[in-house]
């Protein structure tokens, strides 16, 4: 997952991880490959255990604020991350797709997804 090239703030990292958690949960099941993808994301962002825990407790509404404030290049990385997470189990569930599209619309990149 391409997070090394750009510098994300801690609040951006938490928001990204929080949204990734929501994508994993969107289809109602947690596949081992999704867990592995989340662990890979945490490692690639150099997230501490405490920040990862805070991300789990962050609401989607809280996550949208820093995601919306990110520049377009960071949002493109977010799109790739969420796609990777959604496809980790090799099935793109309708709920995952809807959550990702809604997220994109809420942070100002919705037009590229339609």
From TrEMBL:
<feature type="domain" description="Co-chaperone DjlA N-terminal">
    <location>
        <begin position="15"/>
        <end position="110"/>
    </location>
</feature>
<dbReference type="InterPro" id="IPR007791">
    <property type="entry name" value="DjlA_N"/>
</dbReference>
<protein>
    <submittedName>
        <fullName>TerB family tellurite resistance protein</fullName>
    </submittedName>
</protein>
<dbReference type="InterPro" id="IPR029024">
    <property type="entry name" value="TerB-like"/>
</dbReference>
<dbReference type="Pfam" id="PF05099">
    <property type="entry name" value="TerB"/>
</dbReference>
């Amino acid at each position: 997952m391409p997070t090394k090239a750009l510098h994300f703030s801690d609040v951006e990292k938490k928001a990204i991880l929080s949204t990734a958690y929501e994508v994993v949960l969107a289809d109602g099941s947690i596949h081992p490959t999704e867990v592995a993808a989340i662990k890979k994301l945490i490692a690639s962002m150099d997230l501490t255990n405490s920040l990862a825990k805070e991300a789990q407790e962050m609401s989607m509404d809280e996550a949208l604020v820093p995601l919306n404030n990110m520049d377009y290049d960071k949002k493109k990385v977010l799109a790739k991350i969420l796609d990777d997470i959604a496809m980790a189990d090799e099935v793109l569930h309708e709920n995952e797709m809807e959550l990702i599209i809604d997220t994109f619309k809420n942070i100002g990149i919705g037009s590229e997804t339609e």
